[in-house]
Amino acid sequence: MLQLPVEDMEMAPGHAVEWRVSAAAAAGPAGPAGPGLPASYNQKDHFSVAQALRAADIGYASYIGGSFEIRGSVDLGALEAALLYLVRRHEVLRCVFAEGAAADGEPGVELVAPEDVKLERADGGSFGSAAEAGAYVRGFLRGTSTLRGPWVVMGAMVREESATVYFACDHLLTDGVSTAVAVHDIAEAYEAYAAGGEPGLAAPGSFLGHAAAERRRGAALELGDPLTEHWQGFVERNDGQVFPPFPLDLGIEPGVPYRAVNEADALLSAERLDAMEERCRAVGGRVSAGVLAALGVSLRREGGPDVYRALLPVNTRGRGAREHSMGWFVNTLPVEFPVADEADFAGVVGGAQGALDAMRPYTDAPFVRVFDLLTSEATGPSVWPCAVSFFSYLDLRMTPGAELHVARRARTYVSTSHSNGIFFWFHRSHAGLHLNSIFADTPQARRTKASLIGTLVRTLESVASAGRF
Asked: What digits encode the pLDDT tens for the residues 126-173?
């Protein structure tokens, strides 16, 4: 599975079919959520960003989508049943959000019961070229809306001997791992229904239950709690700021949203990444620490500081049923380690691994709540105030159904319309190490990003070849 800009989606021509989620009855309390469930911390923050940008007359959109291939003549009835199975299976896909429906003006969440969910099928028309088919699908995937819905759209480009299935969820609903979960669930359910059977997938855990527990933990947090110690020390060393600034020039004004650029880069082949992993393990680090260290060193070589600081998204699913769940199971934590010019490979990788290990005990401290405590704002960061140093690493070979990603030509797409900085999503697939970057569309940001990636590739190759930066 690769994470790509949706503009890089390859779409063979065919006939488009669309599905949208509808409710046969009014949404109401159901399941473990109980009545009037408030949104999760991440949902609250994301919703407030959309509201703030709407107030500034900026049409903001942000979704996470996916696609995969079905080979052979497609059974549309079985595919529709598989898509309905997905929505009924994952409660987050059955949520309805409303402004001001919960306390303090937060978005309220109502949960539609599984039996009340229906799919509405529509004909999207035929497309005679790859360019036309691709333009249609990209426009279709942009059809989600944070503030008013729909929050999920699904479709397929059908041909005589194949079909491409695609979907998008507003980021309000899901994270990157959720895309792999959705691809696996739809594909497995389709194969079962097409063969006249029923899906036999393991039951997923509850995202709403997870979110409610997170809110309870957050409400109990106060400054001085052991769970806030890591953040407090980081902020003290970061000049009193929660957000570590991206250290290179992007040619932007702090806090101003710009149209976003989305680019993908292949960094290392699978063979070269395996060699890099061996080098990292030899000095006591995982490959994720090696990639993090390489980015820190590359930023230093491009003019950045001799201490690398960044925010990292951390998967909070844990083990068990939630591994099979869709939702936004992410917390944000800080890391820092030295990248001084004289530091050797073992020292920098060891520092990066130590930083990753040091943050793990604090995963249960929700970032939005900690931000409130550290800044006394009590509202969460609606729009990040500056270009932030951000690092994400995900091994997509470890996600559900990964053994079939290549055969299914599975893809994931992260799309956002605006950015006031630069974000790096590193991901490992069966093909190697890749990077998806989203950044503010300015001439300087394009130059900075291109120069940094060139330095990063050389740094990674040096690690793979010789175990040095």
From this structure: 999 999 999 999 999 999 999 999 999 999 999 999 999 999 999 999
258 shares its domain with 203: no
In this structure, are residues 422 and 433 in contact, taking their beta carbons and an 8 Å threshold?
no
Residue 164 has a CB neighbour count (10 Å cut-off) of: 24
pTM of this structure: 0.94
Is the residue at 268 inside a domain?
yes
**Residue 132 burial by Cβ neighbours in a 10 Å radius (0-12, 13-18, 19+):** middle
State the DSSP string of 303-338.
Answer: T--SEEEEEEEEE---SSGGGG--S--EEEEEEEEE
Tell me whether residue 289 is exposed, middle or buried, using C-beta atoms within 10 angstroms of its C-beta: 0 to 12, 13 to 18, 19 or more: buried
Integer Cα distance of 350 and 134 in angstroms: 45
Place of tokens 């998967």: 315
Residue-number span of the structural domain to which 371 is assigned = 236-466
Whether 345 contacts 283, CB under 8 Å: yes
Spatial contact of 245 and 387, defined as CB atoms under 8 Å apart: yes
Each residue's pLDDT tens digit, 407-429: 999 999 999 999 999 999 999 99
How many domains is the chain partitioned into structurally?
2
How many residues are recorded in the chain?
Answer: 469
- Neighbouring residues of 153: CB distance < 8 A, sequence distance ≥ 6: 18, 19, 20, 140, 141, 143, 144, 167, 168
Residue 216 lies in a domain: no
- Within this chain, do residues 170 and 123 fall inside the same structural domain, yes or no? yes
